[in-house]
Amino acid sequence: MVQIERQDHRRLKEIARTAERDGHPTAPFLLAEIRRAQVFDHALVEETVGLNKQVSFRIDFGPTRRRLFVLPDHYSNSEFEVSVLSPVGAAMLGLRKGDRMPYRDIFGALHFVTIMDVEPLRPNFTAGAGPQDPPDPGPQAA
């Protein structure tokens, strides 16, 4: 079951429709996922993949990756983020820990994404910048 937070539903639908008009290849898949989603208040979807949440996932049988789930306009670094408008992002939207979803990559190959964990955005994580390290104290005497 796909679950989307009420506050994100309208914004995601608008982004997907605009992307579809622009001919984005993932837009029809994202729109289909949004249409079949159940819309809930924040408290009921805390552990589902949604905007600005940390998602740990595995593609096929590969290593577990951890990324911030973001809107396409906020996406800047594939090491730290996954866009909802990417094929794997559209597949993950609204899933919960343990859910598995098939999707096709940009080349048409079939893959499966498995959600390992979902966490709210950590206070020390900034979209676009990756995890923040403590401030550098500068050179240290030996």
Describe the model.
With 142 residues, the protein is of the alpha/beta class. The protein has one domain: Transcription elongation factor, GreA/GreB, C-terminal domain (Chitinase A, domain 3, Roll). Helix content is 23%, strand content 30%. It is built from 3 helices and 9 strands. A 5-stranded mixed β-sheet has the order 5-4-3-7-6. A hairpin with a 3-residue loop joins strand 8 (125-126) and strand 9 (130-131). Helix 1 runs antiparallel to helix 2 (27-36). The longest helix has 16 residues, at 6-21. It is globular, with a radius of gyration of 16 Å. It starts with a strand and ends in an 11-residue tail after the last strand. The model is unreliable at 125-142 (pLDDT under 50).
